[in-house]
Design goal:
mainly alpha; 68% helix; globular
Length: 208
Amino acid sequence: MPQLLGGAAYVWPYYAGGLLAYLLGSIPFGLLLTRLAGLGDIRKIGSGNIGATNVLRTGNKGLAALTLLLDLGKGVVAVVVGGMLGPDMAIFCGFGVLLGHMFPVWLRFKGGKGVATAGGVLLALKWEIGVAALVAWIAVAAVFRYSSLAALAACIAAPAYTYWLTRNIGFTEAIGLIALLVILRHHTNIGRLIRGEESKIRLSSKAE
């Protein structure tokens, strides 16, 4: 089970691993796929986000599902590959890939909210935590139909379940920091939720 980063985090392999994970995370799959499909620049529709929820606003469910899988997959790959060099490296790469998705250098550091990528990181670090976060997301999304609210619920559930499952303070803090990064990226969504202006998930047609 991964432990919180210790002194070994300051040697160069960790920085190299974190950089490679960042570059992997910075691949904007949602933007690339919509452009290849002839749907234009995803940043100019809906919320302007490059993630699966905004891709869904194009009306192309298959493309949105593929974006979700690829964004989740890069989180899994970064942690699994990093984990080959030890549990601390797995966590370090998890943060790297998430920061890459949120702040990609190719898009002037304006990336996605990190929900799917964070989900992949959690699944790879400890699959039970990833599943718990996914269940929380599905439950809230099914009842309220707000993707952002579901993401916030998942972010609360992940560290809570981590502590309940492991009783490991260091690991819980690491998962909590991952959740906090995702929550902070949703600050505009939180404002819209409070004002009652947030768009709901729509599967039958393009969202408003």
